[in-house]
Amino acid sequence: MNHKKKVSLAVVKRLPRYYRYLQDLLKVDITRISSQELSSRMGITASQIRQDLNCFGGFGQQGYGYNVESLYNEIGNILGMANKYKTIIVGAGNMGLALANYTNFEKRGFELVGIFDVDENLVGKSVRELKISHLDSLEKFISKCHVDIAMLAVPYEQTPIVAERAAKAGVKGLWNFSPMDLKLPYDIIIENVHLSDSLMILGYKLNEKYYDSKE
Amino acid sequence: MNHKKKVSLAVVKRLPRYYRYLQDLLKVDITRISSQELSSRMGITASQIRQDLNCFGGFGQQGYGYNVESLYNEIGNILGMANKYKTIIVGAGNMGLALANYTNFEKRGFELVGIFDVDENLVGKSVRELKISHLDSLEKFISKCHVDIAMLAVPYEQTPIVAERAAKAGVKGLWNFSPMDLKLPYDIIIENVHLSDSLMILGYKLNEKYYDSKE
Q: Using CA atoms, how far apart are residues B87 and B103, in angstroms rounded to an integer?
């Protein structure tokens, strides 16, 4: 049965969060949970939770709640957690190296197979047993290793150039850390990470709570 | 007039994105835009845009669209862009240094005033003209400099400990990069950045597009 067609992207965007919470519950051997309990843990309304989870089947039972493991597995299926993706990092500066050291990604199926930079002082150095390669070899590597995703942690001006090279060489997805909404005229999935958006939300909340007494 | 009370957090979360797009329009001297045009640029439905922007006043006019500058300023007001926040970074590893080098944050009003680490090899070194201080001096610094926000880029196990120290010393907000939903029994705003959530969404989209022909 294919549940995927019924799930909207708005719901999908909340699934990684459910997935994390359910994983935490499993770790402490909690086998079932009500939407109310999940609600108070996650800070999402119980009705939103029921609505979200109903999108892909009705695992919640009146008076029983959700079976944590089934729900966890089902969300994992929808998110394609069983899939493996080959990823590379372009840019071995601080952000690139920070990403390289997130072992969490591998647990989620994102295997790091290469790191690239133009800096001759970095090329040849090892990061988690991977040697940093020169950017010149990017295209050949992508094609030879069937790389799925390129994580872009290069300077702002370089981002569209490197993105285009990676796309032309055959990556299917780009994960972009430059503060721009990268768009390309290719059939490719792009996720732009805007760190400052999250900081601005934090600023907004602070403002509402502590500083907003002027008006 | 105080628009803020009318704006739900769900809408607020989309505002940084509007803000960025409107800023880009201003840069290329576009003074007005219809919800349809904004929709095709942003990949949000026009009706969602009208609904969002109606939440804080009706700047859109039939047959004219939105005045880009007014809208930009208004969203900036709601997000409290005129406010200045004093921030520190705890953890001068790759992620901490990557954050320190995001000059974008300063443009948004987040001034970096200190960086802390426990590593004696890092303490005393300079990052963007700021000397890295020892974590021992955290509390004194927070209280003396009236630090608003601590950005946490420390190892997983250290995160709750450092968070608690920062909270007790008086920071009002925490921006957490450890892959955990940090919670504290203090009156403090916490934004947890889960980078892997965004990567999982990318994986989901790839899966839907390229790999989902098995079922």
A: 13
Share of chain B above pLDDT 90, in %: 56
Quick one: which H or E segment has residue B109?
Answer: none
Average pLDDT value for residue range B94-102: 95
Do residue B206 and residue A98 have CB atoms under 8 angstroms apart? no
Residue pair A109/A140 in contact by the 8 Å Cβ criterion:
no
- CB atoms B203 and A85 under 8 Å: yes
The residues, ordered by sequence, that sit 6+ positions from A213 with a Cβ below 8 Å of its Cβ are: none
**Cβ contacts (< 8 Å) between B183 and chain A: which residues?**
none
CB contact under 8 A, A211 and B175: no
ipTM reported for the complex surpasses 0.90? no
- Over 50: is that where the pLDDT of B197 sits? yes
A213 touches B: beta carbon within 8 Å: no
Instruction: Provide the shortest C-alpha distance from residue B48 to chain A (in Å).
Output: 13
Classify residue A108 as left (phi > 0), alpha (psi -120 to 50) or beta: alpha
pLDDT tens digits, B20-30 = 999 989 999 99
pLDDT of A82 above 90: no
Measure B178 CA to nearest chain A CA, in Å: 10
Q: Which stretches within chain B are classed as H helix?
A: 9-27, 35-42, 46-54, 68-78, 94-100, 104-107, 138-145, 159-169, 195-206
CA distance, residue A57 to nearest chain B CA (Å):
17
